[in-house]
Amino acid sequence: MGDGLELRWPGKLDDQGRRRPVPRPGARLRLRASYPASPGVEAPAEAPPDRLIEGDNLLALDALARELAGQVDLVYIDPPFATGGRFEVVTPVGPGADAPPLRQPAYADAWPGGVGGLLAMLDPRLRLIHELLAPHGSLYVHVDPTVGHALKLQLDEIFGPGCFQREIVWRIGWVSGFKTRARNWIRNHDLIFFYVKDPTRFTFNKSYMPHPPGYRRRDGSPPKGKGVPIDDVWNAGDAELALRGRDSLDSIQIKSFSTEKTGYATQKNESLLRRIVEASSNPGDLVLDAFCGSGTTLAVATELGRRWIGCDTGRSAIEITTRRLLAVERARGFERLTVADDERRQWSAGLGEAGRDEVEEIRACWRALAGDGAGPLRVEEAIEGSPPAGPVAAWRWAVEVPVERSGDAVEVGELAPSRSRSRKPAPQLVVQRAIVDPQSRAQPGLALAERARLRIRLHGLEQGRVEVELLSLVHPTRSLLPEALASAGPLDLVEHWSLAAGPDAGGPVFAVYGRFDRARTLPQHSAAWAPAEGARTVVLSVRVHDALHREHRLELELSRRGKGLSVTRARALAEG
Known about the structure:
Layout: E1 30-35, E2 50-54, H1 57-68, E3 72-77, E4 86-91, E5 102-108, H2 114-132, E6 133-143, H3 145-159, E7 164-171, E8 189-196, E9 208-209, E10 228-229, E11 233-234, H4 238-241, H5 270-280, E12 286-289, H6 296-303, E13 307-312, H7 315-326, E14 334-338, H8 340-351, H9 356-370, E15 378-384, E16 392-400, E17 403-406, E18 409-413, E19 428-431, H10 438-441, H11 444-447, E20 448-450, E21 453-459, E22 467-474, E23 494-502, E24 509-514, E25 537-546, E26 551-561, E27 564-575
Parallel strand pairs: 2-13, 2-14, 3-6, 3-12, 7-11, 12-13, 15-16, 16-19
Antiparallel strand pairs: 1-14, 4-5, 6-8, 7-8, 9-10, 16-27, 17-18, 18-21, 19-20, 21-22, 23-24, 23-25, 25-26, 26-27
Helix pairs in contact: 1-2, 2-3, 5-6
């Protein structure tokens, strides 16, 4: 740093005392699903789709930097603070609000080495973000006071002290309960550091608050101008404290009845992000959130007509964000991508030769999940066709499933294996990408998931069209489910489902159905759909997402037979 002040953390320098370069492994983004825009909404033809990326954001930022260096207009990040806490996500199950919600681990805010480890994690990511920012771009970093002092010096080093603009103090809101018992001043604020790429040309749309009712100037005359300019202390002045509902800047965590709540423990307010996005970007600009959590930044960017890219390593965060964006009115549609293959490659390389240690890690999770009675687990790269006997785990599954006549309809999929007293069905497990994360691997339920059995009914095939009826999603081994789900019905776990079609299983989604209303009603019947004229064969993919934040698919190969359609092949697909 030019002023002679330098911050050190473990791993910053190599053995020769030189600054370590940013890792550039050449990560690739792989498309997992492409969701449609809301009816009547058309995105500009020249604009690339919005993107939601699941996986290590260091890999994602590396991939994005090769494509979008110097093109991102605004970045907001709310990274973990190295508090050591473990956070949950609360998910409703089934219709209505009578059933108790499901509580699951979301992420652990712990880094080896404490604050030093946090800085080591953030350093290459912040350097890639600096590379991605446009010359007029801005960065907002949301932290708490326990790490703010260190992170401020780190940001000064990466961006330059002259690019620092403001330290925004966000008053979280009223305090009550256990916080007030502290024998100390009660902490009631977070910090948001505002930096720019170039202090001579950054985007900024100045904001004002209306004058309070009855306000008069010192000479007694009525106020003039646009109002009171917003300063760098938020949610503290009379005008801001008077805000109510969706406009209030009080933390969403203390708003008991907010309709924004997703159940994600560290979710931030839309009102907070609305202020940042409106101030430091313009309609059509590209906004990036590399720790997107429950997707607040992305939902606000959609509402305000900005393009966006979001990333998070947690499956619960990605599933919550997906559902939230699907429910947004006048959404432009988006792609969901992953860097899972690169994550797994790095994990395998770090464990040992020929994947021996990798397999043992998976078996250790199985023993912890199934308990003392766990039998030996077979681990495969992929299962095609019929699975082997006994408990088996695989990264990817593709199992042939029966197609059966049911009156005028056709039923496709699997029933749960019978549970005779003499023999329990052997679990078929999907290795989740969470296993690459040591913190998630310590919670076996995040690292391994039983392959569920999905069943549907097809109507209208003889007329050359398809109407899909969702029949059941069943997890055969109840002991591998959380206790709260012991009495769940055949569709209670389903949160949303969709249909996609194309020449293969990766076709774009064209219809989405889910528990998007207040009553959490699940539509079980799709609208009628027909393949394009002239298409002799098409693949229809039925994708179901559940309250456990898992995805299940049925892939159907449909062929024309005269004026009708027939199912010539059906497979159940699963991937962690």
